From TrEMBL, chain A:
GO CC aspect terms: cytosol; protein-DNA complex
Protein name per the record: Response regulator transcription factor
Keywords from the named record: DNA-binding, Phosphoprotein, Transcription, Transcription regulation, Two-component regulatory system
The organism of origin for this protein: Ginsengibacter hankyongi
An annotated GO BP: regulation of DNA-templated transcription
Pfam families reported in the protein's UniProt record: Response_reg (PF00072), Trans_reg_C (PF00486)
TrEMBL record, chain B:
Listed CDD domains: HisKA (cd00082)
GO molecular function, one term: phosphorelay sensor kinase activity
Source lineage: Bacteria, Pseudomonadati, Bacteroidota, Chitinophagia, Chitinophagales
Record organism: Ginsengibacter hankyongi
Name of the molecule in the record: histidine kinase
GO CC, alphabetical: plasma membrane
Length: 222, 418
């Protein structure tokens, strides 16, 4: 999976690249408008992370260019301008999703995974982790080939964990993912959901993949 | 009071005073002139009588008409003084009192002393006074009529450019795209006013756009470093072999970053609402919005054992900006959830006139009004920014909704009346 990060803040693009590399993505970085145009014209990417405010031009222009050239790259706008206009314009121009800064890297990774799944580049809607198998189209989960009944939030939580496997995810990031950023700060709310998900997975005969990381959050790993 | 009415009132009062004053002055001068004329006539009469006596050595026939009278009275005292006076005498023929101007003088006929009284009626003077009064009244009435006509037809036309400018100013929206168009006027004051308003509105629009872009830029400038901090922290938290205190520190920095980011977003939102940047309105179906968000929190509510009671009429449409409607509902709902207690309850009532959300919760220590102000929060124990209710209040103010808070039987209720 190839990802292009169009972002002028070097520190941020490097963090994103470092995180996504851990998820087995190949990341390239374009730090300005011209570089971005050059790369998008030469190569195809599974997903492009696109900042709107760039030296040399607007990210929205790059998006227009992509669409004009019938490029199939998935586009996730990452913008600090959390303004409705940009969001609406971006999505109308054909971006797949919009994420306002500052975002959690785990959220970004989940969104990227969702875009790539939707674009169906690897020809599969099935997500596998050990003996867990998620059909993201039908939104069903199989554990050891047996269906597992999950509530909506538990399903979202599992998907979020698998999109960020082997990574420590903060409670804040989980709360924000499940209920939006207005529920931030009440991290005890997520505890019940995690407890239930863990219980269901273990009852289905799986190992306990959800590891509690002291003080920081949770990690989904073998 | 309208400027015109005030101006007219002053004008009419002043004119009437001047007219009355001039009527009085007229009266005195004309009376004086007429009396002087009468006196001259009386002197002529006197001379005629005296001549007659010298010629005929007898008194002339006394006359007693309404207009003119000559009366002779025999007197013993020869010291009758010659004098003019005004008298009022009863006239038998006309059965009325009539004012006369009279000249009294002594005459001697055959050694006998007489007092002669020559009188002339002053009725003419009275006629003149009446005439003056009538003319004055007519002028006053005429003046009022003219003022009325001027007000009705001329002045309203004259003030039309002013009223049009006023209307434009009332309609003026600093975030609006279209500029103000003034009706051309050849009256200096109005042209000047229009020019001044033009300069002012241009400046207001300029300032507004500057603030708008500043808000956007401030958001950008602050959110980007926050994004870097957050990403570095998340990378750092992936490191193996972190010590307990390091993990605590990472967690603490991460939460503070979230707070700072949320605070920044809330302030930007408040500023944007203040600047009327959410001006697109539509008929928002609040029932659908409420259901959608309640659905999002359903599992959370179940997990906390919070019972929800919904009295949601549908559909309920409110004309407002959709983003703000969503912000309003999310803020109220999350407040009711965050400040709830284990196994508590939430009651949501929505009808055409009001949205009311009640929740169980601990009693508040302070006056509820302050929660609608910025940066007020009940306790330091939770991480809510204390901006949620100010945002709600600001949204309500924008659409002239009234918002109220009550606390009864351990239930906190926030009601928004549309």
């Amino acid at each position: 999976m190839k990802i292009l990060i169009i972002e002028d803040e070097k520190e941020l693009s490097e963090s994103i690249a470092a995180y996504l590399k851990g998820q087995n993505y190949i990341c390239e970085i374009a730090a300005d408008f011209n570089k971005a145009i050059e790369k998008t014209e030469l190569y195809d990417y599974d997903c492009i992370l696109l900042d709107i405010t760039l030296p040399g031009g607007s990210g929205l222009e790059i998006l227009k260019e992509l669409k004009a050239n019938n490029k199939l790259d998935g586009v996730l706008i990452i913008s600090a301008k959390n303004s409705l206009d940009d969001k609406v314009t971006g999505l109308t121009l054909g971006a797949d999703d919009y994420l306002a800064k500052p975002f959690h890297l785990s959220e970004l990774s989940a969104r990227v995974a969702a875009i790539i799944r939707r674009k169906n580049f690897d020809g599969s809607d099935i997500l596998n982790f050990q003996n867990i198998s998620i059909d993201t189209r039908a939104k069903t989960v199989l554990v050891n080939d047996k269906p597992l009944e999950l509530t909506k939030k538990e399903y979202e939580l599992l998907l979020y964990f698998i999109s960020n496997k082997k990574k420590v995810i903060s409670k804040n990031a989980i709360a924000e993912h499940l209920w939006g950023d207005d529920m931030q700060g009440n991290n005890d709310f997520i505890y019940t959901h995690i407890k239930n998900l863990r219980k269901k997975l273990m009852e289905a005969g799986d190992a306990d993949y959800i590891k509690s990381v002291y003080g920081m959050g949770y990690k989904f790993s073998v | 009071m309208k400027l015109l009415a005030k101006y007219n009132r002053v004008n009419v009062v002043a004119t009437i005073i001047v007219l009355l004053l001039s009527a009085v002055i007229y009266y005195f001068f004309i009376e004086k002139t007429l009396v002087y004329q009468l006196d001259k006539n009386l002197v002529v009469e006197e001379k005629e009588i005296k001549d007659y006596i010298i010629e005929n050595n007898a008194l002339p026939e006394p006359s007693y008409s309404k207009d003119e009278q000559e009366v002779y009275t025999s007197v013993t005292d020869k010291n009758v003084k010659r004098s003019f006076s005004s008298v009022e005498l009863y006239n038998k023929d006309h059965d009325e009192n009539i004012d006369y101007r009279q000249l009294e003088f002594p005459v001697t006929v055959n050694g006998k002393f007489y007092k002669a009284d020559v009188r002339k009626s002053q009725e003419e003077t009275e006629d003149v006074v009446q005439l003056i009064l009538k003319i004055t009244l007519t002028i006053v009435l005429l003046l009022l009529a003219i003022l009325f006509i001027i007000n009705r037809f001329v002045l309203s036309k004259l003030w039309k450019p002013f009223n049009s400018t006023l209307e434009q100013i009332k309609q003026f929206n600093v975030s609006g795209k279209d500029n103000i168009h003034f009706e051309p006027s050849n009256i200096n004051e109005f042209t000047e006013l229009n020019a001044a308003v033009n300069v002012m509105t241009k400046k207001a629009i300029g300032d507004y756009n500057e603030i708008k872009s500043f808000t956007e830029n401030a958001s950008h400038e602050i959110q980007t470093p926050l994004a870097i901090i957050r990403s570095k922290l998340e990378l750092l938290s992936q490191s193996e072999n972190l010590k307990e205190e390091q993990m605590n520190a990472i967690q603490s920095i991460s939460e503070t970053t979230s707070r700072l980011s949320k605070l920044n977003q809330s302030l930007i939102l408040l500023t944007k609402i203040d600047n009327r940047q959410f001006k697109e309105t539509e008929d928002v179906n609040l029932s659908v919005l409420l259901h959608r968000h309640l659905n999002n929190y359903e599992e959370l509510l179940n997990a906390k054992g919070i019972v929800t009671t919904k009295n949601i009429a549908e559909p309920v449409f409110v004309t407002m900006n959709e983003t703000l409607a969503e912000t309003l509902i999310v803020n109220l709902l999350t407040n009711a959830i965050k400040h709830n207690v284990e196994k508590g309850s939430i009651t949501i009532t929505l009808n055409e006139h009001a949205l009311s959300i009640s929740n169980t919760g601990k009693a508040l220590n302070e006056n509820p009004a302050i929660y609608f102000e910025r940066f007020k929060k009940e306790s330091a124990s939770n991480d809510s920014m204390g901006l949620g209710l100010s945002i709600v209040k600001k949204i309500c103010d924008t659409y002239h909704f009234t918002i109220s808070y009550t606390h009864q039987n351990m239930m906190h209720t926030v009601t928004v009346n549309f």
